[in-house]
């Protein structure tokens, strides 16, 4: 058991929440947590994508390979014997309930919606004390959930299926199954799996951490056992609440607040959400197309129906929140299509085309544009035709500018150590290094100036290696951290040889 660096408090706003019980350094491990249950995501509106049939042990996609005992998806004999699958395998085998054949093994599989609630309930049977101590108190928002279509879907696809079809009525009742669905819907977190697809898990202690759109803690999932490590992102004083960000940090306020209301059942009123400029980052700011000088901001970001108006008093342009949501949804759908592209020249060129298309619509630091720039910062130097040692100085400078733009936003919305910061620091080192070497090679700077200029990429690599060393070593971020450490040693050696 790790040293306890927090206390649990309760108030009307957060319910239960965590508070530091000592001064914490940035990067310090606060606690670790083991999942109470892990399993496939449900195909619901509050989770990002529906899940095709996956192996119920390793979560790799499967096609017509089923467990020889229960007839549910697994990818082979080893996964069939995996402890993770054992308990549900027994339930399905005894009830003679098999996975129904599907024609398209790449399409969403709502049959899997029952798996994670079932695992949660079987874990309750196995460890009733932990359930009582850690899960019984969790928020489930039953009244609010009953008003939504997903409640009725859960009743048919999960509750009735488990109690009646799987013949578990003597072990669990319908109310308990709906409670399990509520625990998952409100408290589960989406995590990467060894198979590459996102799955979900319930971490009882992590679930107590309150939300803020400017968090002071970060979490890392270790993929071999799905243990989570929670660290301080920045120095935290004794008595300060521990805040986790439940949403994607780069999303604009209108999107973050809708997601939190839909999936977590609360309206966020944190300082970032309360400020029309998002603490000066302008992640929600739109350019005015009626005048040259103004930008369009919400008159009250905490009111979902508030008007948006131009800041130029002589302009007077106004638009509705509904129109803003519609416009964001249309552009975001266009951007989502870019994410489906394979990394290659087209992935760069089409993103640059979107930036050019919308540069007169959005503030240059708007969430949508900065997310594209974040992707481009990682693509430049990594794809055919745009290799790092072939990029002209203009493109090297563009890559560096994108990295700095994202890092500047992170300084405000996600201060301290984070995966995103570590990745951007790694990406920033290369253009800085090549620009300095290129200038030296044509005599624009002296040897001493070259040594001076290489200090910044060295610092970028050192910080990237330090931050990303905390990630799972098999994850893309963990691998990048290892590469950053190797590049750091090579750059230091080349500096000494100059």
Automatic annotation (TrEMBL):
Q: Which CDD domains match?
A: SET_SMYD
Please give the InterPro entries that the UniProt record associates with this protein. SET_dom_sf, SET_SmydA-8
Q: Which domain of life is it from?
A: Eukaryota
Q: Which residues form the signal peptide?
A: none
- The entry's protein name is Protein msta, isoform A
């Amino acid at each position: 058991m790790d040293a306890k660096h927090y206390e649990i408090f309760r108030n009307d706003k957060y319910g239960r929440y965590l508070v530091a019980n000592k001064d914490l350094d940035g990067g310090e491990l606060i606690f670790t947590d083991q999942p109470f249950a892990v399993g496939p995501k449900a195909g619901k509106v509050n989770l990002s994508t529906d899940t095709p049939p996956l192996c119920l042990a390793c979560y790799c996609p499967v096609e017509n390979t089923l467990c020889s005992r229960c007839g549910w998806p697994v990818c082979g004999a080893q996964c069939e014997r995996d402890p993770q699958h054992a308990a549900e395998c027994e339930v399905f085998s005894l009830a003679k309930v098999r996975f129904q054949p599907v024609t398209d093994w790449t399409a969403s599989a709502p049959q899997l919606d029952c798996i994670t609630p079932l695992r949660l309930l079987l874990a309750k049977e196995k460890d009733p004390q932990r359930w009582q101590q850690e899960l019984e108190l969790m928020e489930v928002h039953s009244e609010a959930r009953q008003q939504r279509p997903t409640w009725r879907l859960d009743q048919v696809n999960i509750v009735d299926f488990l109690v009646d079809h799987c013949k578990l009525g003597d072990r669990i009742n319908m109310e308990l199954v709906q409670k399990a669905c509520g625990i998952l819907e409100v408290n589960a977190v989406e995590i990467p799996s060894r198979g590459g697809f996102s799955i979900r898990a319930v971490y009882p202690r992590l679930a107590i951490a309150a939300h803020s759109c400017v968090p002071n803690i970060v979490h890392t999932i270790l993929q071999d056992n799905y243990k989570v490590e929670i660290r301080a992102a920045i120095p935290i004083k004794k008595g300060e609440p521990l805040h986790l960000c439940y949403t994607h940090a780069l999303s604009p306020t209108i999107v973050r607040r809708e997601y939190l209301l839909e999936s977590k059942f609360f309206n966020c009123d944190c300082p970032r959400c309360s400020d029309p400029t998002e603490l000066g980052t302008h992640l929600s700011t739109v350019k005015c197309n009626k005048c040259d000088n103004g930008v369009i901001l919400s008159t009250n970001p905490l009111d979902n129906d508030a008007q948006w108006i131009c800041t130029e008093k002589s302009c007077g342009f106004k638009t509705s929140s509904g129109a803003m949501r519609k416009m964001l949804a249309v552009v975001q759908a266009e951007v989502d299509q870019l994410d489906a592209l394979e990394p290659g020249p087209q992935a760069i060129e089409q993103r640059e085309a979107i930036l050019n298309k919308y540069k007169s619509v959005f503030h240059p630091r708007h969430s949508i544009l900065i997310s594209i720039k974040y992707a481009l910062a990682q693509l430049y130097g990594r794809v055919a035709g745009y290799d790092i040692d072939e990029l002209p100085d203009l493109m090297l400078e563009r890559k560096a500018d994108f990295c700095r733009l994202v890092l500047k936003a992170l300084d405000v919305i996600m201060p301290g150590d984070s995966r995103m910061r570590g990745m951007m620091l790694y990406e920033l080192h290369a253009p800085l290094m090549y620009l300095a070497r290129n200038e030296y090679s044509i005599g624009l700077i002296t040897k001493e100036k070259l040594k001076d200029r290489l200090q910044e990429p060295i610092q970028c690599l050192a910080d990237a290696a330090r931050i990303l060393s905390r990630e799972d070593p098999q994850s893309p971020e963990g691998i990048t951290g290892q590469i950053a450490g190797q590049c750091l040693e090579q750059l230091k050696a080349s500096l000494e040889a100059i």
